[in-house]
Design brief:
- The chain is an alpha+beta fold.
- It has two domains: 24-139, Immunoglobulins (Immunoglobulin-like, Sandwich), CATH 2.60.40; 146-244.
- The protein contains four helices and twelve strands, in the order αββββββββββαααββ.
- The chain has helices at 5-23, 149-154, 173-203, 207-257; strands at residues 26-34, 39-47, 54-60, 66-67, 74-76, 85-93, 99-100, 106-112, 125-127, 138-139, 261-267, 270-276.
- The strands form four sheets. The chain has a four-stranded antiparallel β-sheet, with no helix packed on it.
- It comes from Fibrella forsythiae.
Length: 279
């Protein structure tokens, strides 16, 4: 049997196309479930992959924007050197990205080939069905509660920074820390000076020589008393203000979660509106 040059060319062309098509990876059957409000699992099937292909995962918000994970927040079957198979699994810890699940989101699995990340038939992108409305992707709110008063217990002024809303505010609050500790240090110095003056007073030979030491000890002791009491007042005031602000923040958050609600009802054939406010 003989082949013409044209026939050989067609055979080689078909063989090349077949090999190329076989080498193109494919992602399919993407599924997703929420483990809890901190993590999700993404499952997918992979076929016709090569070691240089890369698998990436993204979350798609309702507005279409894609959220990429931090490197340390994802684990499982992603990256390069993937082996074909069903039920490949990726775990994404959203809390490490500062996110929580509360609304509808979709998982997007991307296949990168040849150094390019595209959404073509050769480099398919598949999207999992959305999670239910009970699982939303929203930024996790930082804690603004009364426990920050414990930090003010160690460093007055610092804890109050973190109970400010909507964002922490530094302002002049570090000066409160400096003032409180400065007064304590100054008071300790005055106490030492008073003790030394009193020692000199006791060891003085006569009343006339001892009197200046007594006056010096008395003045230093008064300065010690004033400085330490002022530092304590600053400390207690800052802790109290931080505690109250944190409690108010907690109350405001509860009101935001459980706002004013109402429903219509019928009493004695008369329509009435029932309002409920939770505080």
């Amino acid at each position: 049997m003989t082949f013409s040059l044209h026939s050989i060319y067609l055979i080689l062309l078909l063989l090349s196309a077949s090999l190329t098509g076989k080498a193109q990876g494919r992602v399919s059957n993407v599924r997703m479930r929420a483990i809890d409000q901190q993590s999700i699992e993404v499952f997918y099937d992979l076929r016709n992959s090569v070691p240089t292909d890369s698998i990436y995962v993204r979350l798609q918000r309702r507005d279409g924007k894609l959220v990429a994970p931090d490197l340390g927040s994802v684990s499982g079957d992603l990256g390069t050197n993937r082996i074909d198979g069903r039920d490949q699994r990726i775990v994404w810890n959203l809390r490490r990205n500062g996110l929580l699940l509360r609304e509808e989101v979709r998982a997007v699995v991307l296949l990168k080939q040849g150094g390019l990340l595209t959404q073509t038939a050769q480099n398919p992108t598949e999207i999992a069905p959305p999670l239910p409305d009970s699982a939303a992707l929203v930024p996790e709110k930082p804690y603004r509660g009364p426990a920050w008063a414990l930090l003010s217990l160690l460093a007055p002024g610092v804890g109050n920074i973190f109970v400010q809303t909507p964002e922490p505010r530094v302002g002049l609050r570090p000066l409160v820390t400096v003032a409180a500790y400065g007064l304590l240090i100054y008071g300790a110095g005055q106490q030492g000076e008073a003790n030394q003056a009193y020692t000199d007073y006791v060891s003085a030979g006569n009343e006339a020589a001892a009197e200046p030491f007594y006056q010096k000890a008395n003045s230093a002791n008064q300065r010690y008393y004033i400085a330490t009491r002022a530092a304590a007042a600053i400390w207690v005031t800052d802790i109290t203000l931080t505690l109250l602000r944190g409690l108010r923040n907690q109350r405001d958050e509860k009101r935001a979660v459980q706002p004013l609600s109402y429903h219509l009802n019928l009493q004695a054939n008369t329509p009435v509106a029932v309002f409920r406010y939770t505080f």
